[in-house]
Amino acid sequence: MTAKRKGFILLAIPVLALVLGGCVAPPPVPPPPSNLSTAAVSSQQIDLAWKDNSGVERGFYVYRRTIGSYSRIAALGPGRGQDDVRIFLEDAEEEIEILAYSIPA
Known about the structure:
alpha+beta; 3-stranded antiparallel sheet; Immunoglobulin-like
């Protein structure tokens, strides 16, 4: 096999992978949940509930922010919006965010 032919084969493999890889549609992006509500269980615990606006999510991520950036504190399965989810508080002032996902991060 000549060097010219080897180069053609090596180039053809990535091009074929790009073409075939582009044929698969990504899963739909689920709409975000809404109507997040909280209920104090104690001074250190709250229950979360939200409206699940999607039937295509693979689950939900729960994020917390005290100071600075958010950190993930829970990964839940699909259809959990109507269930109460109990979390433990680390600080008196925390922000909680719920995101639906279709592809695990």
